[in-house]
Automatic annotation (TrEMBL):
The keyword S-adenosyl-L-methionine applies. It catalyses: guanosine(46) in tRNA + S-adenosyl-L-methionine = N(7)-methylguanosine(46) in tRNA + S-adenosyl-L-homocysteine. InterPro entries: SAM-dependent_MTases_sf, tRNA_(Gua-N-7)_MeTrfase_Trmb, tRNA_methyltr_TrmB_bact. The gene is trmB. Gene3D superfamilies: Vaccinia Virus protein VP39. Its EC number is 2.1.1.33. It comes from Niveibacterium umoris. GO terms for cellular component: tRNA methyltransferase complex. This is tRNA (guanine-N(7)-)-methyltransferase. Residues 151-156 are annotated as: Interaction with RNA. Pathway: tRNA modification; N(7)-methylguanine-tRNA biosynthesis. NCBIfam families: tRNA (guanosine(46)-N7)-methyltransferase TrmB (TIGR00091).
Length: 238
């Protein structure tokens, strides 16, 4: 079967033998001694291993609370800041890159954060195999790789089959919050999210940046240079 948008629509995302093209390339980069140490010491405490079977959030977090999934947390600064500002929510962060995982573990330790759990695995497989339907209060996808070359657009994370999976895993009223600084990706995100029958836009087009999402240093620098940033907040219909 040829790899085209049309054929990908007919691939079953629940079939372990079929999945979209990966939206990332693993570039581990150089980890600092501190990052390596915090992975070694932190993941046994705050890490969750990938396995097939629905994740029990109450057991994983040691409490019952609304759970937010963050896909691709980068170096973890935004995740840590939001988790501290929203202590009543659980945050499950997924990242494939070692330095980011190490840095988030470092932030959790230094700031004494108790409501974050960390996974170093492919987000598609985690969502497919471990996240139960109607179980998430929210999903955060901030500044995913834009794959800005046209021939690479097919690698973008926000595609119809994956958004369908995310929408099914939200509770009624739960939200998907995406942000990007690439305008053509923002257009695609708006189109894909608007096309999902389970979701409705919380705004007329793009949304104002919610107060809980902090500005990153990179984003703040870009805004001062006149670069755009687009937020989208969609909610699952009741």
């Amino acid at each position: 079967m040829s790899d085209t948008p049309e054929t990908r629509k007919h691939l079953s995302v629940d079939d372990p033998k079929t999945r979209p093209i990966r939206s990332y390339v693993v570039r581990q980069g150089r980890m600092s001694p501190a990052q390596e140490r915090f992975i070694a010491e932190g993941m046994p405490r705050w890490g969750i291993d990938y396995r097939r079977g629905a994740l029990d959030y109450d057991t994983a977090f040691g409490r019952s609370a609304p759970t937010i999934l963050e896909i691709g947390f980068g170096m973890g600064d935004t995740t840590a800041t939001i988790a501290q500002a929203r202590p009543g929510d659980n945050f499950l962060g997924i990242e494939v890159h070692g330095p980011g995982v190490g840095n988030l573990c470092k932030l959790i330790e230094e700031r004494g954060i108790t409501n974050i759990r960390v996974m170093q695995h492919d987000a598609f497989e985690v969502v497919r195999d471990m996240i139960g339907e109607n179980s998430l209060a929210g999903v955060h996808v901030y500044f995913p790789d834009p794959w800005h070359k046209a021939r690479h657009n097919k690698r973008r994370l926000i595609q119809e089959p994956f958004v369908q999976q995310l929408a099914q895993r939200l509770t009624p009223g739960g939200y998907i919050h995406c942000a990007t600084d690439w305008e053509d990706y923002a257009v695609q995100m708006l189109e894909v999210l608007s096309g999902e029958p389970l979701l409705e836009n919380s705004a007329d087009g793009y949304a104002p940046k919610p107060d809980y999402r902090p500005l990153t240093k990179f984003e703040n620098r870009g805004l001062k240079l006149g670069h755009g940033v687009w937020d989208l907040v969609f909610r699952r219909k009741a």
